[in-house]
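Open question from group meeting: does this chain pack into something compact, or does most of it stay loose? Before anyone orders reagents, we agreed to write out a predicted structure and look at it together. Recording both the input and the output here so the notebook holds the full record.
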Amino acid sequence: MGRLMVLGLAVTVAVAACAVASVAVGRRVRSRRKWRRVLGVLAELEERCATPVGKLKQVVDAMAVEMHAGLASEGGSKLKMLLTFVDRLPNGSEKGTYYALDVGGTNFRVLRVQLGGQRSSILEPHVEQQAIPPHLMTSTSENLFDLIASAIKEFVDRGEDGSKTLVSGRGKLGFTFPFPVKQRSVSSGILIKWTKGFHIEDMVSQVNDTVGTLALGHYHDEDTVAAVIFGTGTNACYWERTDAIIKCQGLLTTSGGMVINMEWGNFWSSHLPRTSYDTDLDSHSSSPNDQGFEKMISGMYLGEVVRRVLLRMSQESDIFGTVPSRLSLPFIFRTPMISAMHEDDSPGLIEVARILKDVLEIPDVPLKVRKLIVKLCNVVTRRAARLAAAGIGGILKKIGRDGSGSITGGRTRTDVKMRRTVVAVEGSLYTSYTMFREYLHEALWEILGEDIAPHVILKVIEDGPGIGAALLAATYSKDSVCG
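Structure tokens returned:
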């Protein structure tokens, strides 16, 4: 009897153990299935974000064609191709003291620059920065510029040593304005639209920040023919030949060409590798169906794409346990965080864990999830950098600096000899995000090929919008400009 009871108990224990084991196995199976779904999300993203060189060359061609169309007629392209009326660039002979006003998104700077008359002879500029009160960002241009004018007057009156001085004569000031403007002359224009949170009622302005970067780049190196900015936003400008402008718009210039402000953030082509995450981001943005290229390559949006993918992953599986509530907050991931996680080379991805804890308030994220996030950052950033390279390639193709000739009047010229070409680059996305920069260089080399790529140099320019505006003031200081 006792033996039967023991046997029965043993059987019961065995059955219970089997049941527990079965539950554990079931959980592991479900966990593996969920993890496969997460990996499937990443694989699908990687496939849709793919940028083989063939696709990049299609984007290059589309960019060059859109540039021509935008130059040929107003509204002919998503690219605005704005005439800047800057038909001369600094050549290094400029001398004297000049001022610049650089208006940004939340502040403005006033600069004093001394030029020594020799190329690259720029003494250390004196700079003062002042915040723009939020209420003035939605006021009138009169109120905004009353504040700026007062700051400029105080800055000039103080002089170099900070003491009150009496300034004789009229100082020359260059004005950098990082919003799309339709120029009427080199010193006047009409604002097309406010961005960066501004909603001013009226406005007339002058030089775009990308143009200032080109001016400073050309001052240092006469082979500089274009400028691009890769920061929170992105834009590009380049030097266009007079004959192309005359054919397209019948405009005569006083020299061999003019700087064109592309406003390339609005570029769009069916060849761009867009995903459902990009579509959702665009539809929920403050500018739906606008700035499509910028939303795929600029610093403002990389972190948001990563967040949206992570949110879907966490909904597909329990990679974070329950879905973190903070993961539903738009733009909670900024690009410096993406860069730090992407470039974390510590064995345990300590920086990734720290950022996830600080941002999502999740302690102890498993190592395999951290590795997954690094791969995700890589996919999003690599696509952005390679598309940025294709944009540069489009400019080079349009002006005949890619080795294939230039597009003029709808035809391609092949009689232009390849020579040294410099593109001025500014912006923290390029200068501070190593992997973005390396992927961009790699893609540009693939696009141009080993025969052409060595002739194209990307040169970092610091404070182009500020110092470049002062250089343009110097360039035009001896001439009267008709409006």
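Observations to bring back to the group:
The mean pLDDT is 81.
The longest helix spans residues 2-48.
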